[in-house]
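Researcher: Next sequence.
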Amino acid sequence: MGTREILQIIMAGLGSIGFALIFQLRGTKLITIGLGGALAWFIFLIGRMRGNAMIGLFLAVTVAALIAELQSLPGKMEKILEDAPISYIKWDMNRCMSEVYSHTASAADQGKVMHQYILGVYRLYEKLTGRFPEILFESCASGGSRFDPGLLYYAPQAWTSDDTDAVERCKIQYGTSLVYPVSSMGSHVSAVPNHQVLRNTSLKMRADVAYFGTFGYELNPNSLTEAEREAIKKQTAFMKEHRSLIQYGTFYRLQSPFAGNEMAWMVVSEDKKEAIVGWYRFLEPINIGYRSVRLQGLDPKLPYQISDMEMALYGDELMQAGLIVSDVASGQNPEQYNGENGDFQSRLYLLKAKEE
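Model: Next structure:
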């Protein structure tokens, strides 16, 4: 590479700075853009010298576009957030990354490229959350790494999965809860048939699963019936009433959906005077006998009034003998299908300690 090429690289850098001045960029951005312009022209020259100017031009344009976008993206986002009354952002990051490598990194450093990328995401989040601390960010990532613990520092909740089917979500949210709190799990009531598994589940079951997360609706309200609208009003009121208990109470996994046809979990208040139990059955069985679920976290000496039950039961009984969840499936089912019974059942049990 001779003097002529070196002068071209210098002029490319100066020309890039000139354009940046026209668009009123200042400070360190000028240096970055100047170096980016010089780097892009250097890459183009290397490609041409090696006999493939087309690849060199492609890589040069890619570098220049990337640097320009990185310099402008935070500014663009800040302008939008300043001008609009935004309080919540769901940040989708569903771009697949394959054959990831760096032209500038050595062979020994190729394994660091993905890590460097994530550090770049952190820097962008740091800038935006520092500038707009009142905005709630919800993160999302395609495939794995949905719940990056580092990212939870900036986005305290994350979209658990695009699979919003209520039955599938039982496993997804149960498994996620092994590591992450309920308050961090994005969970919505979506439309049926589900867009991925084509399954029809009741509005009740969809809500009963979504309660144990951030809760929300992901459907077209114009397609709802009047009865569904009324049900959604009640579901929303229920979540508002019990949000603090669900999201900040102690969460217990009672029955694993990976082990059988039923699943159960519960949340208990810090003072152990309130609790909510969620019970779910996927397929309707027959002649399965009487069923109970052993609860956890209650005060063994306190009696608890349970919703839809006349008598109160003590905490030690509920934890040792269990909460009875038997229904018609315990024997020969005499019911006729009414659109709500059969497969995909769910129940919520509300427990409140009684004063002795």
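Model: DSSP finds nine helices and 14 strands in the chain. Residues 208 and 275 are 15 Å apart (CA to CA).
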